[in-house]
Amino acid sequence: MQFAHLPPLAASLFSLLATVSLLLSFVMLGSRWISSYLYAFAAESWTIAALSAAVGFYGGYPELYLIALLTALFRGCVLPYLIWQIVRSTRITQEIHVMLQPSTSLVLGAFAVVFALLIGVRIGAQMGLSQTVIILALTVMLSMKLIGFLMLTLRYEAISQVLGLLVLENGIFLGSQILVPGMPLLLELVILFDLLVVVACFGVLVRYLMRHVGSTNTMQLRKLVG
Amino acid sequence: MIETILFIMVGAPAVAALVALIIPLARLVEMVNLLAAIVAFVCVISLPFQVHSNETFLHNYAGIEPLSAWVLVCTGIVYLLASIYAVGYMRMLNEPERLPRFYTLFALFAMTMLAAPLMNNIGLYWIAIELTTLVSTFLIGFEHAAEAIEAAWKYIMIVSAGISLALLGTIFLYWDGSLVLGPTYDMTWQVMQEAAPKLSQPVLLLAFLLMLIGYGTKVGLAPMHNWLPDAHSEGPAPVSVMLSGALLNTAMIGIARFLAIADSAGIGPICHIALVALGALSLLVATLFIIRQSGVKRLMAYSSIEHMGVIALGFGFGGMLGIAGSLYHMINHSLNKSLMFFGAGNAMRAYGTKDIGKIRVFAQYFPVGSMIWLAGAVAITGAPPFGLFLSEFTILRAGFGSISAWAAYAMAVLLIAIFIGFLNQFRRMYDEPALIETSAAGAIPVWCTVPMVLAIIPLLVFGLWWPASFWHYFRLVAMQLGVGGA
User: Is pTM beyond 0.90 here?
Assistant: First the structure.
């Protein structure tokens, strides 16, 4: 890997930022308030933007500065704003029905992290990579993925499911910044814009849900079975 | 030359979408869409004659090889049939002011499906598949009933979550490759297939499994299939046809190509077994739900899960026979499933219900259309003399000779169960007297019968005669996927 001789300061900075992102997804997992999901998501995106910039600086990938800027702009500002608009139109402020208490979700999330760590260590060992940063990146990426899936399964409100999906994407994006910083710029840009379109589509669908189903609670969506 | 053809093929539906957006005249846009479908059809039909090896253009970002050309043929056929059908079907909905919007989305959906197989870069292919999801979501929710919106929500949620796993797999693949090819490289299918023997096997296996689950969600393999029956039953019938006959194949080639990478990396056996297991499970799930199904379009949707399972088994069994069988099955299934959804849409419109229990004595009301539909039902269960019999038989032969022979036996048993269960549903619709008063209200316009005839003829021909040129072509595909000889 190109980070074989990473200065200790850089390594700790990467680790710090990755850990903060993971922590923020726990904030989302443990809360019932839509607004705290949203703030946590925005903060997570800013953290990832900072990580991109840091990787660009220490790894010598100047194009990552652009990615960092766009991440901060789109994931950190535009997406939260769009979602905030959707939230305002639904007038939902919190999850009313929860499948599991927040504390239980947090414990599940902790198990997810342990599982991700096991996989990360195993892959690192198989590939002969022992740098902490790589293992940490793998762990954070996989745990954010698992936490995103937990949010998708444990939440009923349409908007929290959308945010769960965005956590999945954030996890992948974070991991890709550390594991494959040299990924062609075009791909990263397309993925960023794709996300915007996805959220716009979700905005329209949530509006349809309100108008034609009469609720944004996905518990109401159980007409189609068998 | 070939670049121009592909450009026209993708461009035609794009123009149609643009026209529908700018000039919202219902009669005009349906004809423009039909015209675009004809143009695209002519283009795709010429492809197999011209594509003999891998050709790339646009700086390696796009390309065409025998496999993608074949899938494009299936997509082109389905797009044409569905466009003819849509003219009649969408008029029956009696909402002329919403037609331009429908055709904008419909043509866009066709465009994304025609473009996706051309994506030579694995990352761009992922984006294209994601785009097909986004466009088709609104087609599924087009009728705005609560059920349709529910189906659209489930579809976009499950498929987006699933496909994000494929993105993770793509990142892992890129990472694996970056240790061999340097930090920045073009992640095309060919580059990865060549570099595969040098890649780290555990990471590649992880990437394969993630991609299998990710694209498998889109293909509708069990247990990630739960969006499929809802989406296929709640969208308007032309959309169901496009989803089932074209979209599922488009996602399947991602799995087939990745399997070739796994093969040349030397982790083939375990990947094949994973694919076979998903295929067999899909068949099992489909069988159980077909036998006790009460919705006519859901019946067709579960049949799609069944046939995707069969195609997955074909690729999973591998070898020349497995690949040839799968490819033949793709085109037969595309034709046949279009026919089945056309019939289901007609029945649904005529009786005003999706409930099999309320569709009775179908043949009395619609002598011609009902007979073609019945023939299609016999065909889709894999009975001779139709195309699916030959392709399923070939896949079974491939299975008996492979390491996963157990799955071939399971497949044979399940296919028999499906044959009985599926045709029993048709017996109920054709033969059982009505318990409650049912009546077929509407007449079926000729637009809705013609595509059924157009679908059944090649299906019958392919059942009686497997052209030798197909074999040559399938051999090319097999070579591309790293399988040589017969």
Answer: yes
